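Quick one:
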Amino acid sequence: MCGRFAYFGQGKYDYESLQLTDDTPAVESFNIAPSQNILAIRTSPETMRNEYVMQ
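Output:
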């Protein structure tokens, strides 16, 4: 196995407690390889707020 996985959340996460903006990127893939960037939630080092990033 090479570690591939699928994500099909239709761009809606409903993480109200994280206080994220409503401009959620629509990302879906049924064949994500280990070398591909994926949508992640992190705390911004500059603003200390949660944000979506592609990593």
